[in-house]
Design goal:
The structure is a single chain. By secondary structure, the protein is α+β, with helices and mostly antiparallel strands. It has a four-stranded mixed sheet, with helices on one face. A hairpin with a 2-residue loop joins strand 3 and strand 4. The longest helix has 12 residues.
Length: 84
């Protein structure tokens, strides 16, 4: 199974929702809190043109945020992306 990496900030409702989704699906994930990490924020913007959290990756693939993950899950495509 590919690793889920979730970039979050301390007070983010969508970050909490993403964590709840992953926990409900019993999926392990790595959380990276970037509340005080301006370098990581700049990197996310420069590399992926992404300014908000959560920023969700499956392996090395940038998925997007909570809305994108829930769309994939609703269409039945999210879990298949985790397969190696």
């Amino acid at each position: 199974m590919k690793t889920i990496t979730l970039y979050t900030t301390q007070f983010c409702g969508y970050c909490l929702a993403a964590k709840r989704l992953f926990k409900s699906l019993e999926l392990p994930f790595e959380e990276v809190n970037i509340s005080d990490n301006d370098e990581k924020r700049i990197e996310l913007f420069e590399k992926y043109n992404w300014r908000t959290v959560p920023a969700i990756f499956i392996g090395d693939e940038f998925i997007g945020g909570y809305d994108e993950v829930t769309r994939l899950h609703t269409r039945g495509e999210f879990l298949s992306k985790l397969a190696v």
